């Protein structure tokens, strides 16, 4: 399994970013895909998830209304569109599948700062 997260960067509070996670090595459409994040000194935490068909979507309370998760099974890619970003959203963002998580990728750094 290979995973590459991208799209992070430095953004001002209130700004937007769209993250991408492109995978290979497994049947992408068979799996729920989740986004997680890990801030410095904190545990990795769940952010959002989407089932294989895209019909069922889940969000953590702290991002509800500010993010949209989507997927393109033809491209083996899951996206996380983030709006109204806050400094507390600063973290490294990762994706992984459910069940049978694969080894974590390098993630993509999101920094929200003025």
Question: Which percent range describes the beta-strand content?
Answer: over 45%
The helix-and-strand class reads: mainly beta
**Largest sheet, spatial ordering of strands:** 2-10-9-4-5-6
Mean pLDDT reading: 96
Global morphology:
globular
Sheet with most strands: 6 strands, mixed
Q: Tell me roughly what share of residues is in helical segments.
A: under 10%
Unreliable residue stretches = none
Number of helices: 0
Number of strands: 10
Q: Secondary-structure element sequence?
A: EEEEEEEEEE
Distance between the termini: 37 Å
Task: Please compute the radius of gyration using only Cα atoms.
Answer: 13 Å
Write structural notes for this entry:
Helices cover 0% and strands 50% of the residues. The chain contains no helices and ten strands. It has strands at 2-6, 9-11, 17-24, 32-38, 45-50, 57-59, 67-72, 77-82, 91-98, 108-112. The strands form two sheets. It has a six-stranded mixed β-sheet with strand order 2-10-9-4-5-6, with no helix packed on it. It has a four-stranded antiparallel β-sheet with strand order 1-3-8-7, with no helix packed on it. A hairpin with a 4-residue loop joins strand 7 (67-72) and strand 8 (77-82).
């Amino acid at each position: 399994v290979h995973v590459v997260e991208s799209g992070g960067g430095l953004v001002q509070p209130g700004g937007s970013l769209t993250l991408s996670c492109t995978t290979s090595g497994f049947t992408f459409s068979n799996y729920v895909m989740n986004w997680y994040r890990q801030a410095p000194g904190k545990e990795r935490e769940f952010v959002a998830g989407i089932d294989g068909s895209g019909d069922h979507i889940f969000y953590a309370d702290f991002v509800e209304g500010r993010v949209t998760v989507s997927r393109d099974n033809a491209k083996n890619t899951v996206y996380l569109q983030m709006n109204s970003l806050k400094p507390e959203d600063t973290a490294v963002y990762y994706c992984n599948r459910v069940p049978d998580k694969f080894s974590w990728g390098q993630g993509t750094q999101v920094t929200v700062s003025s």
